């Protein structure tokens, strides 16, 4: 898979999750909590992102300080997180307890996710050329 396609998929996902967290953090947290209770869905989503991360890393796994290298670093992090999510979803979900009931922190995390998504979409456009 090309880096541009990976950036596009991950960028849209980050914006799709980040913007609702900025606008309505409590309602989005409630929706995400209900979605995370569905174990097969969670594992399937983790597997999907693990596969696309692996497809990116097969084409080149070298991390660097340029935008392509940072996207590869993000692919490594995504692959590691999704591997954990596929095998131990409840342990990964237990990590959310420190921020789940703090709407201001959820809003900040939503801003970070949205900014990352916009950056990825911009990188996708510049890599595709």
Please describe what this structure looks like.
With 129 residues, the chain is mainly α. It has one domain. Helix content is 83%, strand content 0%. The longest helix is centred in the last third of the chain and has 26 residues, at 103-128. 21% of the residues are buried.
Total helix count? 6
Give the domain tally: 1
pLDDT averaged residue by residue: 89
Report the count of strand segments: 0
Please state the CA-atom Rg, rounded to the nearest Å. 15 Å
The proportion of strand residues reads under 5%
Name the helicity range: over 70%
Question: Uncertain spans, ≥5 residues at pLDDT below 50?
Answer: none
Report the major sheet.
none
Distance between the termini: 16 Å
- The helix/strand class is mainly alpha
Shape: globular
How are the elements arranged and paired?
Blueprint (H helix, E strand, L loop, with lengths): L2 H21 L1 H12 L2 H21 L7 H21 L1 H6 L8 H26 L1
Helix pairs in contact: 1-2, 1-6, 3-4
Can you give keywords for this protein?
single chain, mainly alpha
Structure summary:
The protein has 129 residues and is mostly helical.
